[in-house]
TrEMBL record:
<protein>
    <recommendedName>
        <fullName>Capsule assembly Wzi family protein</fullName>
    </recommendedName>
</protein>
<dbReference type="InterPro" id="IPR026950">
    <property type="entry name" value="Caps_assemb_Wzi"/>
</dbReference>
<dbReference type="Pfam" id="PF14052">
    <property type="entry name" value="Caps_assemb_Wzi"/>
</dbReference>
<dbReference type="InterPro" id="IPR038636">
    <property type="entry name" value="Wzi_sf"/>
</dbReference>
Amino acid sequence: METDDVYLRSDLQLLADAGIVTVPVNSFPLPWREISVQIKNTSPSALAENTRQAYYHISYKINAAKKGYGNRFLKLKTAQKGLPSSFGQNNDVKWGAFSNVGIDESRFSMRISANYAQYHDKEEAQFNFDNSYFAVTTGKTNFFINTQAQWWSPSWLESISAEQRVHPAYELGLERTFVDLPLLGSVYFKTGLNQLRSSDDWKYSWRSRLSLRPVNALELSFSYFDFQEAQNKDAQDNYQQLSMDGRLSLQSMIDIPLAVYMQHIIDDSQPDFSAFLIGSDYSVLAAGMQMRFVFEYRNTKDDYLGETLDKKRYSVGSVVQMANDHQWQLFLHHNSSDNSIDSSINNPGNQLVGSYRFLIYKGMLSLSLSSSDTQENSDKVNAGLSWELHF
């Protein structure tokens, strides 16, 4: 499971909160093997209505992958301006065409992607192989090489570690999931060597993640990054960071579909930098619509030219799946900064971001809009459009 479908992730989180899926589910891309086994061993007739809908959505995705349906992909995309990145929402190109072909066998899996796009951060259109991968398995351990986007966090809108990048790194690594270990519960471990892009601050990085679910209600994760060979004159040659995140679901304890989560940098080789994130989500089924309401707050402090730059962001909104398979999300972000050097970034700003997705011509059409009242943003309203087809 990848970082491109917030609605599918919402379904998976419902199953995890209900105790149907017991492996860690907050490290993306997410291996399907253990999840598919646990889904297969579940009887939908015993599930509550909202959980049953999520079960059918996930089961369809797994069965389609096993039968080879949807292993070919085409996407056309355009956006006036880059919007705030979040899980499954990333308008990073002015225009682009994206395609891939995947192969899934019992011992290996691969995907070859071919993309041509004009990115917002590039002056010219370029061809790339982003979102390609090759993986082999021993049955318990997976070895892989890929250029896939990562999302290591229980959050929905922002991530302190390994958030979505416009240009994913080239990664060589391994991952393994342990199920029902004594005291630790289910455990997921991933580690890999990354070659970053020329636009990044460093040339290489080693990143690792360990996730634990000692009980169904709690998932804890630790992420470690080691960056080497600075490519930016303002970056130090060796940079390390250790962060942790966790999610506590109240559903299995008091039968309320509410969860709280956090992410915090424990140790950073830049002593003047700190960041933490807290949030909460609540899921409910009403009028045939599966709705997840989200609130998040992020605070980042950094020493900027001898002065402290203090950034705060508040976000609130919802992700909705309707009975007719139409899907939409709407979020309001409030940003504020405290900085005595550049007074222009001290002005608070609000941004409203939304998208609507529905089936048309056998593919999914997605419309996105954003509205901002910040003074430095000359384009108050921006739009994006994409159409994707799995076949």
